[in-house]
Structure formats: C-alpha cells, structure tokens
C-alpha cells in the first residue's frame, strides 16, 4: 500500500519533500538519486537549495540520474531538462560535475539509452527516485501504453503532453515530438520512490494510478507493484482518493 501524505498547500509539500531529501542526504550522503523536472519540482528544489545553504549536508558523495529529456533541443535551450536542472539545482549545490546525468539525446540515441542504463547499474542502482505525474498518468515521459517492463528509450510524446508543456517553451516554438525517458521497468528498480502531485488537474491521474486496477493505460499505476512508494500531495490532488 502506498503511503499517502496529504498537505494543506503546495508550499507545505515543497517544504516536506525538500526536508525528506535533505534528511536522506544527511543520513546517507552517497545516495543515488533519480531526479524529476516539471513545475511541481521548482519550489522543491528551491527549498532544497535553501536547506543546503543553511548547511548540514552535502551532495559531494551523491549522484543523480534524471528521468527524461526532450530530443532535438539545442544545448542550453531554456525548456531542456538539462537547463532546468542547472538552473534549479546543479548550479547551486556541490554535486560533482558529471554526477548529475540525463539520458543522451544526440547521435545514436539507442546506444546512449543503453549506456544510461549501464551507468545507473554501475552506480549500484537508484536509491531514491523522485517522480511527478502527468495529467494522463505518465511518469517520466512514459505515456499511456508504455509497457511496465520498458527500459530507457526514445518515445513519442502524447499530443496532450505536448499541449500541457507548451508553456515551458518560448512563444511560437513547437514542443519536440519525441523524448528519451527511463522506462517504467527502470523506474520500478529504484529501491524507494517518492511521487509528488499538486492540484486538481492531477486528481484523476492519482485516482487511476492508485485506486484502480493497474493498467498500462495509466503508467503510474505500475507503482502499485512497488513495495516502497510515498506520495506527497495536496488535498486537491488527493480529491478522488
Ligand atoms: C512532464 C515530465 C514529467 C512530469 C510531468 C508533470 O512532462 N516529463 O516527469 O512529472 O510532466 O509536470 P508538472 O509538474 O509540470 O505538472
């Protein structure tokens, strides 16, 4: 049974998730993190950076692997997850260069995805995987229909996902049609998973993920088979639960 923690506001969630990460890095500085992007994580990283600046823990022995990245964006593109991670976390903490990895999106993408899986394995696997959730129940960029045993790979984005993420792109730019993402199988191998969901727009996805029978129609429902999942959400997202 997933552990649901319901908070009164987005700010309270951000505080709680940042505290959770800071406590983990304090107790286990060599934690292998799986990190997520999206609007949900912006205030979480801001509070994590504030805690880091206040002292008491470090990222110097940690490593992180990001879930996903768009294919086809030039380096430094403001909507790329690389730029997001730099701006919101990596530029502000002592995570060693090269220890904050994203799946490769240039050259032979299939080979890069396999190398990414191998890199996760050579770090001993992911200890704590952070996840947001898409309105359609996607995790990472595993859209509905993704097999529960899928691995890191290139995927087509759902039209609704491209629409939902349009606001992250400069006006007039199109959201790339494809991305690379850790697979659902990759995600399920993490020792622990924390999923964060805020707002009424996520209520249906949470309901389908955790209250209904698991099905590839709702990728997040794969998490029902994982023994250690904690969900941080507000009462709006928890609505249907
Ligand atoms: C994006 C990301 C997901 C993220 C989700 C929700 O497309 N690929 O990893 O969890 O959509 O994003 P937001 O937090 O902005 O709602």
From TrEMBL:
Pfam families: Glucosamine_iso. Residues 11-229 form the Glucosamine/galactosamine-6-phosphate isomerase domain. It comes from the Bacteria. One of its GO terms (biological process) is glucosamine catabolic process. Keywords: Hydrolase, Isomerase. The keyword Isomerase applies. This is Glucosamine-6-phosphate isomerase. One of its GO terms (cellular component) is cytoplasm. GO terms for molecular function: glucosamine-6-phosphate deaminase activity; identical protein binding; isomerase activity.
């Amino acid at each position: 049974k997933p552990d649901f923690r319901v908070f009164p506001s987005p700010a309270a969630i951000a505080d709680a998730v940042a505290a959770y990460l800071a406590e983990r890095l304090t107790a286990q500085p060599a934690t292998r993190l799986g990190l997520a992007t999206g609007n949900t994580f912006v205030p979480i990283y801001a509070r994590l950076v504030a805690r880091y600046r206040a002292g008491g823990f470090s990222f110097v022995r940690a490593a992180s692997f990001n879930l996903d990245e768009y294919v086809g964006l030039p380096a430094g593109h403001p909507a790329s997850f690389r730029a997001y991670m730099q701006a919101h976390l990596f530029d502000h903490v002592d995570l060693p260069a090269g220890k904050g990895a994203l799946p490769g999106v240039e050259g032979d993408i299939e080979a890069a995805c396999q190398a990414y899986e191998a890199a996760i394995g050579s770090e001993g696997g992911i200890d704590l995987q952070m996840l947001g959730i898409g309105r359609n129940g996607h995790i990472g960029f595993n859209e509905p229909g993704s097999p529960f045993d899928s691995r890191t790979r290139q995927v087509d984005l759902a039209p609704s996902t491209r629409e939902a993420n349009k606001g992250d792109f400069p006006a007039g730019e199109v959201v790339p049609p494809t991305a690379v993402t850790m697979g659902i199988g990759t995600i399920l191998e993490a020792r622990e998973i924390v999923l964060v969901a805020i707002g009424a727009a996520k209520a249906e996805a949470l309901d389908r993920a955790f209250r209904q029978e698991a099905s590839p129609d709702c990728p997040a429902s794969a998490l029902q088979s994982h023994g250690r999942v904690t969900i941080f959400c507000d009462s709006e997202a928890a609505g249907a639960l």
